[in-house]
Amino acid sequence: MSESTLSRRASDRLGGSSRCWLARALIAAIASCAGLLACGTPVAEPALRFAAAPIIIVDIDTLRADHLGCYGYSRPTSPNIDRFAESSFRFDWAFSQGPNTPPSQASLLTGLYPTTHGLINAKEDRLSDQVLTLAEVLAANGYRTAAFVDGGNMSAHLGLAQGFGVYDDRKLGLAAIQENALSWLRDGLGLREDSSASAAPPPFLLLVHTYDVHTPYAEPPPFGTMFLDGLEPPTPGFTASNAQLEEVRLSVWTEEPRRLPENDLRWAEALYDGGIRQTDENLGRFFAQLDALGLLDRAIVVLISDHGEEFQEHGSVLHEKLYATVTRIPWLLRPPGGVEERVIGHPVEGVDLMPTLLEMVGVEVPGAVQGRSLSRLLAGGDPDPGDLAFGESPWFGHRRFVADSEYRLLLARTTGEMELFRYREDPLEQHDLLARGRGEGGLGGEDAAPRERARWLRGALRDWHQMVSAASVSESRATPLPEDVVRQLEALGYVD
Question: 192 near 28, Cβ under 8 Å?
Fold first, then answer.
């Protein structure tokens, strides 16, 4: 699709009179008044703005926040990312909207919660054409748009290519993907390392995505063995393969759940960390090339993930539960020219990415967007203590979560079971404040404040879900996934 056709299509839909979008705009407005959702209506407060600045999003699938040095990890997994963080805003408590790729990535790119955008399962769903993406809105405002993604759950067949003039979804790995992205910058946009420092690049959106941290944990030397020293050898035959980890994950659904022995678990975690270090090495080269092209001085650069990874902190592996090991994501935002590292401790969400970037570059945020712009927070404004973060999963009793500035409540809708954590003091969420008779961390009879907060948060969660359900535009897949996409999903461990 040509850039002009893409822009016209997005413009038509931005100005259209779709009943669905009108309804969602009204719902978002009502929710904003209730303090649950934030629509795109600008208010007269200072905001961090860089009109028509290029935007580069580096999206590292399955990257757990607390396995990065800049988030306090002890292993040297991320020296280049840590250096990037030194000139960025770092969101300390950013939450994804789901525990797996399709719903979380769609929320990043649309500013909508999973129940609303409807992309939950890659095998059954696709993103509806009624949904406006970040790329479509920017294309309608004169931006060139390109995405270089790692296939699988990011395949164009899921609808995620909407708005991108170029969408390369070949499963290639980060080293090749970032080279293709750099080629687009040079050949597609005409950027050169020797360009005049005064030559401003055209406005563009570039998305770079990789599964290099995702299973299978099979990194080449030296990364695959980098963090194995000092560990007890694994059980003979254990390699942390997809099949071995899936066996443990699937057993959680049975009456006899399995757990990896400690030596195998630590081995798998070390292999995962090796994947982070390999990704970090590639990103170091990518950031250097962006700098040579003058883009670190000109562009807004984001590093973010869609979800993390569990290593039996809550009885399972991989990523399907809503605990912070999976739903706490890294989010670094570097404005043009950088900024002295600043940590934002207020809870934020993946759905906030789209409205934040749009407001920063001076583009109106569509009223139906359910995330909130953080540009005023970045400009030094005070956080709204009433802001909440939400997420959901169809598994384990249709679980949902809501977080305020102190507590995070997890609710299983089908059973009514609740868990409450003070997530800042208990980042691995090991001490359920609503537990009785479970020793330290259980809620005693004298401290009613957490229980009262749990009741309030449960009500907020109920109201939120009613609103996002009323706004739903879910769409079932009309045709089967192509065989090459199925093979990519199989390689990632998703399709039997």
Answer: no
Please name which of 169, 129, 167 lies closest in space to residue 152, comparing C-alpha atoms: 169
Q: In what order do the strands lie in the sheet with 166-168?
A: 166-168, 144-148, 204-210, 55-60, 300-304, 331-334, 89-91, 342-344
The CATH number of the domain holding residue 84 is 3.40.720.10
DSSP assignment of 426-452:
-TT----TT-SSSSTTSPPTT--HHHH
Alpha carbon distance 48, 359 (integer Å): 8
Nearest to 358 by CA among 94, 165, 137: 137
Residue 72 domain-assigned? yes
Are 404 and 411 in contact, with CB atoms under 8 Å apart?
no
pLDDT band for position 141 (cuts 50, 70, 90) = very high
At residue 58, φ and ψ (nearest 5 deg) are -105, 115
Is pLDDT at 154 greater than 90 in this prediction? yes
404 vs 415 pLDDT, higher one: 404
Whether 187 is in a domain gets the answer yes
Query: pTM here?
Result: 0.89
Name the domain count of the chain: 1
pLDDT 10s digits, 412-466: 988 899 999 999 999 999 999 998 533 444 444 446 788 899 999 999 999 999 9
Dihedral sign, CA of 473, 479, 485, 491? Answer: positive
Q: Is residue 75 part of a domain?
A: yes
The four Cα atoms 477, 480, 482, 486 give a dihedral, to 10 degrees, of 90
Note whether 318 and 246 are within 8 A (CB): yes
The pLDDT assigned to 396 comes to 61
DSSP 8-state symbol, 250 = H
Q: Is residue 407 part of a domain?
A: no
Domain that holds residue 22: 3-389
Task: With cut-offs at 50, 70 and 90, classify the pLDDT of residue 55.
Answer: very high
Burial class (CB in 10 A: 0-12, 13-18, 19+), 224: middle
SS3 455: helix
Instruction: Using the predicted structure, report yes or no on whether residue 490 has a pLDDT greater than 90.
Output: no
Burial group, residue 292, by CB count within 10 angstroms (0-12, 13-18, 19+):
middle
Question: What is the rounded CA–CA span in Å between residue 470 and residue 385?
Answer: 26
pLDDT digits over 345-403, tens only? 999 999 999 999 999 999 999 999 999 999 999 999 999 888 999 999 977 668 999 99
